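Before the break, one more example. Copy the sequence into your notebook; we will annotate it together after we see the structure.
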Amino acid sequence: MYTSAVLWIGAVAAGAFETLLAVIGMFSDGSATAGVLISGVGLRLVVFGTAIFLALRLRQGRNWAR
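Here is what the structure looks like once it is written out:
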């Protein structure tokens, strides 16, 4: 497994954890609305999904993923 792919997947995991903390924080202070949560988390899911896709292609040795 390539080190760069592992590091990318680790970065996505850290981002997902940060998203979880942000959602919990929004619920705890009462600023969470459905629109804010859906748009914020939805955008992050798209970005995280794209990053995971590219990291897996990088791991397979696909040079275009660089």
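Helices lie at 3-29, 34-59. The chain has a mean pLDDT of 89. Try to locate both features in your own notes.
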